[in-house]
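fwd from M.: "can u put these together and see what the complex looks like"

so here's what she sent:
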Amino acid sequence: MATTKKSKKISAPIDERETFVSLQKTFADSETNTEEKLHILYELQKADNEIDKLVLLRGELPAEVADLEAQVDACNARIDSLQQVIAQYNDNIAAMNDDIVSLDGEIERYRSQLEKISNSREFDSINKELENLGILRKIDEKKIGESKDAIAENKAAIENVKTKLDVLAIDLEAKNEELARIVESTAKEEKVLTENRDALAAKLDERTLSAYNRIRASVHNHLAVVTVYNGDSCGGCFNTVTPQRLIEVASGKKLVICEHCGRIIVATPSAE
Ligand SMILES: [Zn+2]
């Protein structure tokens, strides 16, 4: 079996329809000249960095608020279900009480019969009935007692959940206020940055922009466009860039992609 020498060309897909090679081709073919486009990419990355900083300022707050809200919802659902259980026990108690009323009626009837008894056999039979009815009555009373205990337990559980809810509500209010304060203090700045960012993005063709977004989303520091670091390294992954590529970067006439991390490497603008 013959081993084919692997091409060193980067053909890793940026997305389903885009590879670095095809992107390089579009980049060169497009109306806007490469130099200008690379500069737009550089500026776009800078604008996105500023927006990222603002989002970072909010930190974990949005996630914390969402988590607290979920806990509040869970507590309310728990209270609802405990209240349903209590309602069921109350229904049971009402049914037992009705049963006791009818048992009492029967007991009353048998007792009045006892007064008109003529023989001992009848006496024994009625007493037996009364005894049975008494047992049934005791069972109902026992069930009522148990239901009342269960209701008390469920009510205590509701109080516990309500105490937890009070703590959550205080926490949630504080976090919401803090978040609102940060958003308000940065809203103006964020609006300006976002408008600037969108204006830059609008200058790029769809394929380049989608590649930029894709690279940005795939790298941990969200840097899709980097400059040369320390004279000969990629500013994104700090791996050495070949001399040939360094020349291409410096010329500003070609889209150069880091062969190690896939980031776009551009020259540092001379004004800076
Ligand atoms: Zn790199």
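replying to her w this: The first helix runs from residue 20 to 29.
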